[in-house]
Specification:
0% strand, MetI-like fold, globular, 82% helix, mainly alpha
């Protein structure tokens, strides 16, 4: 092999190396993420098998996987519970994000409105979402509307508050410069205010997912007209003392919460505030 061919081979190896390193990094991150769950699962399984823990009170992971298989393929009900819960969550959460950012922007840019509504916002933030549900059941009925509204209320006030803080933290010189350059109010929002306030808004978006899940479960448990949903599945399992179904419902709520955060919110954060240098990864 000549020198030119050797040099070409070395260049091909090095040019492909970044892709390999990226795959290795992702695999390592996945291993780190799964390791504590695997450790707890093995310990849990061992304690149940050696009867240190009563399987009737806390079933082993293998028993839970068998029950998941049964719910999915034999009874064919788990997928319907998951679908209806995710449908309600996504709809309520998206409404909370859109309304929260819009209202937060208006209040941030108008001092009179902000001073007027700040006490009301402080009052509403302090009310637990579960406390709204009995009122919503009376005013909106026992169906999906009540649950979606509860999810909306679970996230919107946190997003409004963080949007106000984020919008007010944007450098006024940037706003004035954009207006001098003839940027419209809509362009000012999308090109200056929203990007500049994402550092404050992003944590609220991630936290509000958890708040919305809590509202979803509470609403599904208490709404009598709802047939499907993870919250309804957990609530009905208690009548039969079916601990396996309860734990499976809790597990799927947590799993989908992590999935929404890892696949949607974290990439959004990395593609915006981290990419722009407004937030550094440590």
């Amino acid at each position: 092999m000549g020198d030119a061919e050797k040099l070409n081979l070395v260049q091909r190896i090095h040019s492909g190396r970044p892709g390999v390193l990226q795959v290795e990094k992702k695999a390592y991150e996945l291993l780190l993420f799964c390791f504590p769950f695997l450790t707890i699962g093995i310990l849990w399984e061992t304690l149940v098998r050696f009867r240190v823990i009563d399987a009737q009170i806390l079933p082993a992971p293998t028993m839970l996987f068998q029950e998941i298989y049964d719910l999915l393929l034999n009874k064919r009900i788990l997928q319907f519970h998951i679908y209806h819960s995710l449908y309600r969550l996504c709809l309520g959460y998206l409404l909370a994000v859109v309304v929260g950012v819009a209202v937060g922007t208006v209040l941030a840019l108008n001092r009179s409105l902000r001073d007027t509504f700040s006490p009301i916002l402080s009052l509403l933030i302090s009310i637990p979402t579960i406390a709204w549900i009995p009122v919503l059941l009376i005013t909106m009925g026992l169906g999906d509307l009540t649950v979606i509204t509860a999810i909306f209320l679970g996230g919107v006030f946190e997003i409004i508050y963080s949007s106000i803080v984020g919008m007010r933290s944007v450098n006024k010189q940037l706003i004035n410069a954009a207006r001098i350059m003839g940027v419209t109010e809509l362009g000012l929002f999308f090109k200056v205010l929203l990007p500049g306030s994402l550092v404050a808004i992003m944590p609220a978006l991630r936290l509000s997912v958890g708040y919305c899940w809590r509202a979803l479960v509470g609403g599904e448990m208490l709404s009598a007209m709802i047939k499907w949903g993870l919250g309804k599945m957990i609530y009905e399992a208690r009548f039969w003392n079916d601990v396996k179904v309860m734990i499976i419902g809790l597990a799927f709520i947590g799993i989908f919460g992590v999935i929404l955060d890892r696949l949607f919110l974290k990439p959004l954060e990395q593609g915006t505030v981290e990419k722009w240098g407004m937030l550094t990864e440590r």
